[in-house]
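Re: that backbone. Tokens:
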């Protein structure tokens, strides 16, 4: 079984669009991420159908609520057969532990990762919500919380990957969005790295959306990015 590092973000408005894109890609070279837009619009059936096409699915719902509610949502997500699921580390230690215990109860345990600080947040945004640390310090302390609660890893910016890899060593998964091939448009991403740079910084999995899904030939771009990260 292959272990593709690339996770294509299927940020689509409908199930039909998501399945059409999935058919232009291949599970040999990528996994797929279903986020809030698609999940809210299409419902859990889209996850079933992507799995039926042979894909591993990362369900990116960034769950954040009281521990009991998050635990129950995690159990339900695990029953969908997703490969990876995430929660928001700002939900705190008890919520993170409850999430971990919930996925352990299922028959097929998905990987459980924690979102730290969104890459869209600036230092000022973080200060505005009353957090006094720098984004890098805040990410590190949230990653520690995730690790202590038994999560498999975190979602972070490629900029933070090297420091987290140094602190946590191999085996703690680092999933990084904000990745752009050298010749691609930045879209609304600001602090980006190329796929090869992100892997060199210690990223295990790269989330890439529009550079692949917005291309005339998504399959070809996926192949190119796959080649760029193979053997880094
Ligand atoms: O199209 P693009 O490559 O920018 O897509 C990146 C994906 O990663 C989107 O689905 C976005 O919601 C997600 N993401 C992100 N930054 C984070 C967390 C998730 O861009 N910090």
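Recovered sequence:
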């Amino acid at each position: 079984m292959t272990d593709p590092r690339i996770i294509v973000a299927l940020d689509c408005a409908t199930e039909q669009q998501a399945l059409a894109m999935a058919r232009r890609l291949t599970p040999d070279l990528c996994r797929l991420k279903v986020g809030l837009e698609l999940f809210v619009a299409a419902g859990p059936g889209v996850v079933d159908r992507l799995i039926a096409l042979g894909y591993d699915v990362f369900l990116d719902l960034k769950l954040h609520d009281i521990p009991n509610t998050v635990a129950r949502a995690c159990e339900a997500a695990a029953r969908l057969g997703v490969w990876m699921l995430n929660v928001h580390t700002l939900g705190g230690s008890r919520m993170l532990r409850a999430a971990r215990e919930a996925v352990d109860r299922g028959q097929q345990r998905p990987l459980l990762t924690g979102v730290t600080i969104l890459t869209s947040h600036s230092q000022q945004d973080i200060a505005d919500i009353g957090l006094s640390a720098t984004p890098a310090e805040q990410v590190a302390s949230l990653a520690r919380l995730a690790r202590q609660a038994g999560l498999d890893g975190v979602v972070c910016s490629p900029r933070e990957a090297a420091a987290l890899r140094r602190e946590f060593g191999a085996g703690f998964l680092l999933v990084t969005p904000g990745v752009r091939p050298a010749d691609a448009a930045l879209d609304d991403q600001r602090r980006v790295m190329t796929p090869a740079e992100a892997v060199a910084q210690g990223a295990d999995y790269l989330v890439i959306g529009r550079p692949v899904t917005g291309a005339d030939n998504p399959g070809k771009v996926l192949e190119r990015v796959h080649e760029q990260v193979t053997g880094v």
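The two ends are 20 Å apart (CA to CA). Strands lie at 6-9, 30-35, 57-63, 84-88, 111-115, 153-155, 173-176, 205-208.
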